[in-house]
Amino acid sequence: MVSVDQPEPAFDPALVGRAHRAIDPLHSHLYFAPEQDEHLGALGLRPGRMVYFAGRAAPMGAVAAGVVTATFYNFSPSLVAHMIPRAWTLASPEQVRAARLDAARASLTRLLGEEAAGSPEVAELAGLLREACTGLSAEGRPLYAGHADLPWPEEPLLALWHGASLLREHRGDGHVAVLVHAGLTGLEALITHCATGRGFTVAAAKATRGWSDEQWDAACAALADRGLLDDAGLTEEGAELRARIEVQTDALAADPWLSLGAEKTGRVVELGKGLSRVLTANGAFGQGIFGRG
What is the pLDDT of residue 7? Predict the structure, then answer.
């Protein structure tokens, strides 16, 4: 017999996803911020995609286009090859990493306001994220590994951004592993995520990821052949696959939050949501980029 008096689990698995959603904007807003183009463009990099690829890849060193395509996963290889390794002839990874920190400081200060950017809440969240990252393994997680080799900034605002970056890339590397196991190419993963309504709009996905209409349509046809997509969007089987992918991604991303514990993870969610809402309210993410999520 199973007793109805059994205690509740000490850690709610749903906290993993909530923690990710609470803090991710603190990292990802930079990809839409003019400060990134300003600071990295000053090194000679071309604003837009070159700045993005070089900035995110720089912690791994002067890697080739194939490494960027593999680790970023859902970008057109031809788009990546148009920007990398050319970027490394214009600026070294060390220069890019330093400029990226300057851009993060400037964008967070602008969007949060100087008072909030220097607040005790920022310092508290930075400390919690650093604690959450303690003991994480870099095995099989190349983007996380590159970021994890960098020193923690002493400035609380930048420590917050670095911690959010580490946790995002750690989760992202695990997500790519789940997508590979599910048999989805980078483009197919992008299409199915758009179809959930929680990712990019189709127009934004094509524009930012470099896929042509012909490539997009061919991938949609392949997904339809597998019974995952139809004219109305995701089929029941496709929706179930995407739901499993999220559950499995959460499972692979659970270690930092299990280590931190339910109470402190709940505090991360509280602080992260508050700061992320300020970013969003102050225009961190433009209109027409994301679906309902």
Answer: 45
